[in-house]
Design goal:
Layout: H1 7-26, H2 40-45, E1 46-47, E2 56-57, E3 65-69, H3 70-74, H4 81-88, E4 92-94, E5 109-111, E6 114-115, E7 119-123, E8 126-127, E9 154-160, H5 165-168, E10 175-181, E11 188-197, E12 204-215, E13 219-230, E14 240-241, E15 244-245, H6 268-275, E16 293-308, E17 311-327, E18 341-342, E19 348-349, E20 362-379, E21 385-402, E22 416-437, E23 445-462, H7 490-493, E24 543-559, E25 564-575, E26 579-591, E27 596-607, H8 611-615, E28 618-622, E29 629-633, H9 639-643, E30 652-665, E31 668-685, E32 689-690, H10 698-709, E33 720-722, E34 724-743, E35 746-759, H11 769-777, E36 782-792, E37 795-804, E38 807-810, E39 818-821, E40 824-834, E41 839-846, E42 879-887
Parallel strand pairs: 7-10, 29-33
Antiparallel strand pairs: 1-2, 3-9, 4-5, 5-6, 7-8, 9-10, 11-12, 11-42, 12-13, 13-16, 14-15, 16-17, 17-20, 18-19, 20-21, 21-22, 22-23, 23-24, 24-25, 25-26, 26-27, 27-30, 28-29, 30-31, 31-34, 32-33, 34-35, 35-36, 36-37, 37-40, 38-39, 40-41, 41-42
Length: 888
């Protein structure tokens, strides 16, 4: 529910935490991790994630974990850490959504077919705060912005591919990703990389570095920084649809069923000349499809100090600023936004006076992200270890909209708006303990337990008034030129050309015109409210959503015999908005012989919908039936959501099963794991409900009346509406195979994931046939990454194949038209030469053969798009690059 702000408390607590950490650091206190003395080779074989007690080797882990070393991360030529994970972990997938509000800049990802918010993200084993962005469609993901973590700050990444909510809490349904920060106390590195796509666009430059400092002889500070800048790409063709065509090479140029050349101020010469200015992106088409312009500066630090032999202090955190910009859908003459209206003096006005060639709204996002984690860890006299920690994290997105209008303001509308900000904040305190007990088993029993308290909030900050206000042209005949009987008033009689009776022949039984006042004199024209493309947050839909949580857990593990390791965990959490949840997990590892182990687990899990998912509001252009429609997303607990039949949200619950085998045959290391995730009450956006002012469209008209009764400004210009809901159950089954073979100076690695999701309940009350089909079929069932790396003294060669299986996509709401997509293989090649012991150069190419997925031939997308925009298979083409690395 909407509560009073706790921001002052959070700020005071975070400042106190920062002050304590500053004093501690200035007093030269520091931390050594338990494995600080281990070399890199040992690190690659030991993981912390998956066991709350003590590190274990990969072979001994009862659950599957991918361990990515610093060299692995550095060998992937991407700026975004998301892309690095996608390249190295087959079960991790990433979408590119070029026209999707904030999702253009913070991209949704999945692990084992589950959305990002069902994978818990940790940094140095501490929970990472969420992004302020809630994806407005589909699974409505709100997860951490992994792009804020520069790869230069990472010593490694551990990817736990198993449900772990009993150990780590909400969100860990699909698994856990733990980013381990560098802890060097001397030396450092610098890297400079540049490249571009084969198409000649998307130029990118990345500068990243790390430096370590000693704090006396007992501490360290490791600082990493990154600057990255990427230009936009366009894999588009000029806009030419049946309703409007601006492709000069087409015989339908300046035609189409909805293209209106009779608007005030329109001339063909002026329109053609204005097309070049219709989009500010400069990609040569009025609506570009591709990656947006992005740039960012990111800073991370990790520090610690040994206070005594039994106490260590640590602190780490980050600050980053990034920005991006992209395009929305092109607005052509006659699209409902660019229409004739009658001004107060009776003259006709059209937005073509501001934008002679129509316009494409441009969307800008400025993202500020920062965090601080501090703590004390050590050991009591009785042998019990402790870790007391506190963390604060904030992510803020400030939006700007340019090259657009608030149509309802008519000629008085500005062309630039600040529609508002989104802010997500988290404050958490935790205490974790471990102790060994003698239970007359093969080894001592390790008991890990702890408790935690967290406050989190999500705030929608209102935009400037022009971005949400309803101007005079949000209603028909704002200047009272016509009477109710469609005759002119005294004021209207003085207007030349006014025809109050010029209405459509289609009327209702009472004689009123169908579909509002369509086809009438412009005096009756109604246009949209708010900055077109992304209306601002009004006071009614601004505010802060807050909640708190308290939790406790226990994790018990032991080698009960020489061959059998057992682990059990339980966790209880209580939420101020959802009540309490109790989950548990058991896992085992059984040694079959010296070379092979059998492992498995079963556990329950949960994910509590975030304050952002409960409170987000958005009006944007979507394609529910292949046509651009202004669609409103409203909170389930809002008056609009309740009027539309939404139920209050509840936690998702899961039951996870896993069984696998690990082993070695000479130089071959292999792991094979099978899993099943049963997810109950899955969180999803319901299929778009049609909204219309036409009373003959009974259901759509009722939706309009509900919006209007709830006081939604511009309800008569909204064509669709939806909300988030616990909509259905799913079963996800799959298999992970990871194999590594070393031969002389060559290392071969194969990672393969098979994943299939099926809806396991009646979802027809929430999803239409198209959305149900796409949940089950719109991503490849299997994906593989195969790589080989060979060292020739000072030269090393890396070859990698990224393989995607086939998949299908439903085109229309009834799912009667299906497009099948074939399998795709991308090959990456890199050559690295060590010039000196400290200096190396590398050059290579991603997707060296310039492969693309199949083009969109079914019409699921429109408006100049060539490839299906939501495809997880990348559709940008080949990319070549060069990189300079220096260590010191």
């Amino acid at each position: 529910m909407l509560q009073q702000s706790k921001l002052n408390k959070a700020i005071k607590t975070s400042l106190m935490t920062w002050a304590l950490s500053t004093v501690a650091l200035s007093s030269a206190m520091a931390q050594e991790t338990p494995d600080a003395a281990a070399d890199a080779e040992s690190y690659e074989k030991v993981v912390i994630t998956g066991s709350r007690g003590a590190p274990r080797s990969l072979a001994d882990s009862p659950v599957p974990v991918d361990v990515l070393s610093e060299d692995d991360l550095a060998g992937v030529p991407f700026t975004d850490t998301n892309d690095v994970l996608k390249t190295l972990v087959p079960s991790y997938s990433l979408q590119r959504q070029p026209i999707s509000d904030g999702a253009s800049f913070i991209r949704p990802a999945t692990l084992r077919g589950m959305p990002t918010d069902k994978t818990l993200v940790l940094v140095n084993s501490k929970r990472r705060h969420r992004s302020a962005l809630v994806q407005i469609g589909g699974s409505g993901t709100q997860g951490p912005d992994i792009a804020t973590i520069p790869s230069s700050a990472l010593k490694g990444v551990e990817v736990l591919r198993d449900g772990a909510a009993a150990q780590y809490g909400s969100d860990a349904i699909a698994g856990v990703i733990n980013f381990v920060l560098k802890d060097n106390d001397e030396g450092g590195s610098f890297s400079l990389e540049t490249g571009q796509y084969y198409e000649g666009d998307g130029e990118q430059i990345t500068m990243t570095g790390n430096v370590g400092f000693a704090l006396g002889d007992k501490g360290f500070v490791s600082i990493s920084a990154e600057y990255a800048d990427s230009n936009s790409t366009s894999r588009s063709e000029q806009y030419c649809e049946s309703w409007a065509c601006v492709d000069a090479t087409s015989p339908d140029f300046l035609g189409g069923g909805s293209f209106d050349s009779s608007l005030a101020g329109y001339t063909e010469e002026g329109f053609i000349a204005g097309l070049d200015a219709a989009n500010l992106g400069g990609e040569g088409v009025v609506q570009p499809w591709g990656q947006p312009n992005t740039s960012g500066t990111r800073l991370f630090f990790n520090s610690g100090y040994e206070i005594s032999d039994s106490m260590k202090f640590y602190a780490f955190g980050n600050y980053s600023e990034s920005e991006g910009d992209g395009s929305f859908y092109y607005r052509y003459p006659g699209n409902g936004t660019i229409e004739n209206i009658r001004e107060q003096d009776g003259s006709l006005y059209s937005p073509l006076e501001k934008f002679p060639g129509g316009f494409t709204p441009r969307f800008f996002g400025d993202i500020t992200d920062y965090s601080l984690v501090t703590g004390l860890e050590g050991e009591f006299a009785n042998g019990m270890t402790y870790d007391f920690s506190g963390r604060y994290g904030s992510n803020e997105i400030s939006y700007t909209l340019k090259n657009t209008i608030n149509p309802s303001m008519g000629p008085d509308s500005p062309t630039s708006f600040t529609p508002g900000d989104l802010i997500n904040e988290e404050l958490q305190f935790s205490a974790d303990f471990t102790k060994y007990f003698d239970a007359d088993l093969y080894s001592d029993v390790l008991v890990a337990f702890g408790l935690t308290y967290m406050e989190e909030s999500y705030e929608l900050v209102g935009g400037d008034e022009a971005s949400y206000s309803a101007g005079p042209y949000a209603l028909p005949d704002p200047w009272d030129f016509c009477n109710a009987d469609y005759t002119a008033t005294a004021a209207g009689a003085a207007i030349s050309g006014l025809n109050c009776a010029n209405y459509t022949a289609n009327t209702n039984e009472d004689g009123t015109p169908v579909d509002g006042f369509a086809g009438m004199d412009p005096v009756y024209q109604v246009v949209g409210v708010g900055s077109n493309g992304f209306p601002g947050y009004s006071p009614e839909y601004s505010g802060k959503y807050e909640r708190d949580m308290a939790g406790v857990y226990v994790d018990v593990s032991s080698d009960v015999s020489e061959s059998l390791f057992l682990q059990g965990a339980m966790r209880y959490e209580d939420y101020s908005d959802f009540g309490s949840e109790l989950v548990g997990k058991v896992a085992f590892r059984y040694t079959l012989n010296d070379d092979f182990n059998l492992r498995g687990s079963v556990g329950t899990g949960f994910r509590a919908p975030t304050p952002g998912q409960q409170g987000t509001t958005n009006v944007s252009t979507r394609l529910p039936n292949g046509l651009p429609v202004a669609t409103g997303l409203f909170p389930a607990i809002s008056p609009v959501g309740q009027a539309l039949g939404a139920e209050p949200l509840s936690p998702e619950k899961s039951l996870n099963y896993a069984i696998g085998v690990t082993g070695n045959v000479d130089a071959l290391n292999i792991t094979l794991d099978f899993y099943r995730i049963e997810l109950e009450d899955r969180f999803y956006a319901v299929s778009t409900l049609e909204v219309s002012t036409d009373p003959t469209k009974v259901d759509a008209y009722q939706n309009y009346l509900k919006l209007d009764a709830a006081g939604v400004a511009g309800a008569n210009s909204i064509g669709g509406v939806n909300y988030f809901q616990n909509a259905f159950d799913t079963v996800t089954q799959g298999m992970d195979l990871v194999a590594t073979y070393t031969f002389d100076d060559t290392v071969f690695t194969t990672s393969l994931n098979y994943n299939k999701t099926e809806i396991d309940s009646d979802a027809s009350d929430y999803l239409n046939a198209e959305d149900q089909f796409d949940v089950e079929n719109a991503t490849p069932d299997w994906r593989a990454v195969i790589s080989a790396k060979h060292n020739f003294d000072m030269l090393s060669i890396l070859v990698r194949a990224n393989i995607y299986g086939s998949y299908e996509n439903a085109i229309n709401s009834a799912a009667t038209t299906i497009q099948e997509y074939g399998s795709t293989v991308f090959f990456d090649v890199e050559a690295k030469y060590q010039l000196t012991e400290d200096l190396s150069i590398a050059a290579g190419a991603r997707n060296i053969f310039d492969e693309y997925p199949d083009k969109d031939t079914g019409g699921d997308d429109c408006c100049g798009n060539v490839y299906w925009s939501s495809n997880i298979v990348d559709w940008q083409g080949g990319y070549y690059y060069a990189r300079l690395n220096y260590t010191f």
